[in-house]
Structures are given as C-alpha cells and as structure tokens.
Design brief:
The chain is an alpha/beta fold. Helix content is 36%, strand content 18%. The strands form three sheets. Strands 3-4-5-8-9-10-11 form a seven-stranded parallel sheet. α3 crosses α4 and α8 packs across α9. The structure holds NADP nicotinamide-adenine-dinucleotide phosphate. The site of NADP nicotinamide-adenine-dinucleotide phosphate has 28 residues, from α9.
C-alpha cells in the first residue's frame, strides 16, 4: 500500500525510531474497552493495514479487554516486522465486570510484564509505560517503588525501554532518577492543553510525548473552530485535529485509536495535511476544556 508521509520519524532511544503517526489499539476491544471486538475480522484488518501503511508504533495494554487487544495484535501481526515498536503499559487491572483498578504493587507490576510478554508472544517488550495517576490526570504521589520494579525487569532483559503515563513533571524527574524515560503518555488534545509547558520541556530533553485521547477519547472533539477549519479546507475534523497535533511540536507522537479502516485512513491523512498559520491561530484559540 502506498505511504508517503507519516509525519516523519522520531527516535525515542538508540535503535528505537518510530513513525510520528502511530496507532492506539484500545478501541479494538469491545464496548467500554471490555470483552471481544464488535467486529473481529475488521479489528484484524485494521491492525494489518496499520503495518501495511508503514506505521511502526502501536500502543496497547493487557488491560484493554482485558488481554483482547494484545491477543489480536499477536494474531494479526506475529511474527512482527523488525521495525515495529509495540508499547504496552502496566499499573491497572480489570475485574469481571470491567471495572478498572490499580495494580501497582511490585508483584503486580512484575506479573503484568510477564503477562504482556505471553499475550504478545514476545521475549522482550520494546517499551513499557508505568500507568500512574487517576482516570486522566496525574495525582501527586511517589512512583519510586513501581518504577524501580520496572527498572529491575529492564535490567533482567525483559524490557528494552521505559516510559511513564498520566504523570506530572516531578514524577517524570523522579522516574528519571531511577532509569531513563523515553516517552511520556498523557491526556492532551486541541481542547485539553494542560501539558503545553511539559511538552516543551520534554522536547528539549529529546523525550517523546504521546497524547492519549488525541481525538477526544470517549468524548469526541467538538469545536466550532475545528469544524470551521475542516470545512474551509475540505477535510474531516479528526484529520485536522491530527494535523494540528503533528504541527504542535516535533516530539509529539500520535496513537489515535479506531476500530475501523475508514477512520484509520482519515487519521493517517492528517500526516499529509499542512495547516496554514491562520488555521493554526484559529485552532489555538479553542478554549481548553477544564484546564
Ligand atoms: N495511558 C493511558 O492512560 C491511556 C488512556 C487512554 C488511551 N490510551 C491510548 O491512547 C490511544 C488513543 O486514545 P483513544 O483511542 O482512547 O481516543 P482517541 O484516539 O482520542 O479517540 C478514539 C475515538 O474516536 C473515534 N475515531 C477515531 N478516528 C476517527 C475519525 N477519523 N473520525 C471519527 N471518529 C474517529 C473512535 O471510534 P471508531 O472506533 O469508530 O473509529 C473512538 O471512539 C488508545 O487507543 C490507547 O492506546 C492510553
């Protein structure tokens, strides 16, 4: 399949270069990120098209399903292309009703890493993010115990690189005092820009910033300015939202989630769209929600 532009590449660490346009697998699980996909064949087709398009960054976790997205990724893509970087995360678990719970004891962290290896069918995980914080924002508490547990697994050779998710600047610094951090995954999009300063600081350090809910997540982005720009240039709103993120800072790496190939193609098209200065000014004027 023809691919021209995936927003360029970003090197997270030596030997770990990814296309800035990636893919988030969470939407492949069933409703509420729980249970099997609503359309299993389409889920497999989405994953295969991700790779055919040349995307080399897939974000996942065992708590999507649980286990559903990792098993789909394995079925669709294993044996994995050499340049594919699969990023997973630990720190939560699901119960039988689909509720989310913390799973942050060192034992839980260790067993989550082993479970991710099993479900993805890998001997080594490329990158593991420690998922901290609350639903979508950091909570001020030490992550030392958990990050030390991950750093030990890294030293044992089970993980290549480490990242953190739903954290503030102090927690990133705390993690960096234990082991190198190659990416930070936090809630950020056109209408939720709490991390503007953090993105600049991570850029200066050469660290990737991976926004989750880039299209609004469970509440799709709705904004007059976004619709106005999209109508003016004749592209879907979500394509414009992706283009804005890619233009926002070179260390932003995208993992928009979708369960359909149609939306995947719309999202990837955002990487070929250059927004004018006027468009960016209008989009920048969107009042952040709840910031
Ligand atoms: N670290 C964390 O705590 C955390 C939290 C949440 C998510 N994540 C990761 O971040 C990734 C992205 O977040 P997300 O999937 O929650 O949210 P998102 O990418 O902001 O939005 C996904 C939603 O947008 C819809 N969508 C996608 N493309 C679209 C398009 N072109 N037009 C219209 N609707 C479109 C999807 O529905 P369709 O399926 O119908 O396309 C889905 O409902 C996840 O997949 C996951 O890997 C991480």
């Amino acid at each position: 399949m023809a691919t021209t532009d995936l927003g360029g590449t970003f090197t997270m660490a030596e030997g770990v270069t990814v296309t800035r346009m990636g893919y988030g697998a969470m939407q492949l699980a069933g409703p509420g990120v729980f249970g099997p996909p609503k359309d299993r064949d389409e889920a497999i087709a989405v994953l295969r098209e991700v790779v055919e398009l040349g995307i080399t960054h897939i974000d996942t976790s065992d708590f999507y399903g649980p286990f559903v997205t990792n098993e789909l990724i394995r079925e669709a893509l294993s044996p994995y292309p050499e340049d594919l970087v699969i990023v997973t995360k630990v720190g939560a678990r699901r119960d039988d009703a689909g509720n989310w719970h913390h799973a942050r004891t060192p034992d839980e962290i260790r067993s989550a890493v082993h479970d991710n290896l099993d479900h993805l069918g890998l001997d080594v995980l490329d990158i593991v993010n420690l998922r901290f914080g609350g639903f979508a924002q950091a909570e001020p508490e030490s992550l030392e115990e958990q990050f030390v547990a991950l750093a030990e697994l890294q030293q044992l050779g089970l993980i290549r690189h480490l990242g953190v998710s739903t954290v503030n600047a102090e927690q990133i610094a705390e993690a960096q005092s234990i082991a190198p951090v190659v990416c930070v995954q936090n809630f950020y999009n056109l209408a939720h820009r709490t991390d503007d300063e953090l993105i600049a600081s991570l850029h200066a350090q050469g660290i990737g910033y991976v926004p989750y809910f880039p299209l609004g997540g469970f509440t799709p982005l709705q904004s007059e300015a976004l619709h106005e720009v999209a109508a003016r240039i004749g592209e879907p709103s979500m394509t414009v939202a992706i283009a804005w993120l890619l233009q926002r800072s070179p260390n932003i790496l995208l993992i928009p989630g979708t369960s359909t190939r149609i939306h995947l193609r719309e999202n990837v098209a955002g990487a070929t769209l250059t927004l004018s200065e006027d468009d960016v000014t209008l989009l920048d004027s969107i009042t952040p929600a709840g910031d």
